[in-house]
Predict the structure.
Amino acid sequence: MNSQLLIQNIFRFVLLFLLQVLVFNNVYLGGYINPFLFVLFIAMLPTGMSAITMMLISFAGGLAIDLTTNMIGFHAFTCTAVAFLRGVWFDRIIMHDSNEEVNTPSLYSVPYQQFGVYMLLMLLVYNAIYYTLLVFDLHDIGHILLSTVLSTIVTWLLAILYQTLLVKRTEKQK
């Protein structure tokens, strides 16, 4: 990984971590919606990174969020699980019919629809695992499902907004 890419990822981590901890962890709309924009950091990790490194970085990021929320293990486990699945989804959704090299998955480096589906899957799994661990009672399956779906939709919209406003347009879309 070159130094410019490393600096970009450190900046992205710090920005998304601060947004998550200072803003989005304090948002809980209607008792069901809590955006987890930090997942975008995992989605945008460089593609040349090994799976183990990606999972360790995701675990550390999740643990850092856990330490600020006094919920040790919830985000660390969830971030690690999503990082584990990320490689499979990236290969199947984004790279399945492309011969182009993608350094950092974003709204501008891959086709919009593919990035949207890729991000939606990551957020859906993240929220499903997180709310299942949080509620940990299948009698409240309705609450788990509603929180998962609503938080996924809101976070997905915020991720697209983040991408639109803050990600550098490096490549033209086809």
User: Anything to note?
Assistant: The first helix runs from residue 3 to 23. DSSP finds six helices and no strands in the chain.
